[in-house]
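Morning F.,

Quick status update on the modeling queue. The single chain you submitted on Monday has been processed. Sequence for confirmation:
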Amino acid sequence: MASAFGHAVLGATLGKLLLPERQYWPYWVAAACCAALPDVDSLGYRLGVPYDSLWGHRGLTHSLLAAAVVAASGAGVGQLVPLARRVSAGRLALLLFLSTASHGVLDALTTGGLGVAFFSPWDLERYFFGFRPIRVSPLSVRAFFGQSGLRVLASEGRWIALPCAMLWLFLGLIRRTLLTSRAHN
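Structure tokens below.
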């Protein structure tokens, strides 16, 4: 798996991309949380859930179905937000779906594990992409805070954080350019 940090960075970037106005920063945070959420299944290790089972790591919680359930639930909860800060349910659902689904995409780009059950529960096959540049993160917090974790963070810096930062800068430049051109017209 990629680390929670890498997942959250991509989720927040998707939030910024789909809801660029600063007033929507709480949705960026929600997207970051949704992007990390599928790893709740790693708690199963302590409960004796086999890695390769439906409920094991990178199983059902990493599926597109789970992303759709999270998106629908989040869009419903989003309707409780005061009208001035609310976004359309469809737009919010899209953001939360993409953020949650991005978790499996990043995990399928890692160097270890059993792959991702994108189509669970109908198809339990685990998938990886042909290009796998992201170092797999250790599942234990203790193991993460050492040399292994530093290597993971360096890998995620290169393959996740840097492209996301470039996208944020690009979006900022476009926004500034549009605002400047509107001011001159």
